[in-house]
Amino acid sequence: MQAFDVAGYVVDDDAERVDVDAVWQFLSTQAYWGRWRRREDLAAQVRSAWRVVGVYRCDSGALVGFARAVSDGVSLAYLADVFITPGHRGRGLGKLLVAVMIDRGAGAGFHWSLHTADAHSMYAGFGFAPANPTSMERPGDRRTATPFGAARPVAPTRRRFGAFAGPCTPLAGEGSAPAPTGLPLWVRRSCCGTRSSREPTAGSTRRFG
Length: 209
Hints:
Blueprint: E1 3-6, E2 9-12, H1 20-29, H2 39-48, E3 51-57, E4 63-71, E5 76-84, H3 93-103, E6 111-113, H4 120-124, E7 158-161, E8 164-167, H5 185-191
Parallel strand pairs: 5-6
Antiparallel strand pairs: 1-2, 2-3, 3-4, 4-5, 7-8
Helix pairs in contact: 1-2
């Protein structure tokens, strides 16, 4: 963990120190981004963050600034939810917060990315620039995103036997579709979850093709 004192404030990357309620208060009422989130969504993001950095008043310990990062821990990182509360701006705390996050820790030298609508000049001072022509991104769609705490859908199991590849097809007479052709009976039954007495036992060998 790292902490930096500056003129009545301390910048600290101790995740246990983050006041999620204070972060939620700002992001849910004053931020122009991410207002779709619920408090539990934010709490999950803070818990799973690669690194979080807070700015705290030395006299009261109150959180007045915050930033979080998502990273693979090796070479790539994304900077998000950066803010300083209005009453504490104009003191250079925003720049110090970003500097601690990207240059004074394990992420120094990483390829960093971010989105901003109004702080381009500040981030340019840290080397950020518009993406080059090779960069692409796919915007999220919250209408199809899995809600916080909900079970994620499981993709259908696919088995590959020679040229046949696809989800299980019911055996003839067990469903509306015919059994896959070109496969031994025991393979067709095993594919559909019904094991046949003709399936080879240990020590026996089946040849395909």
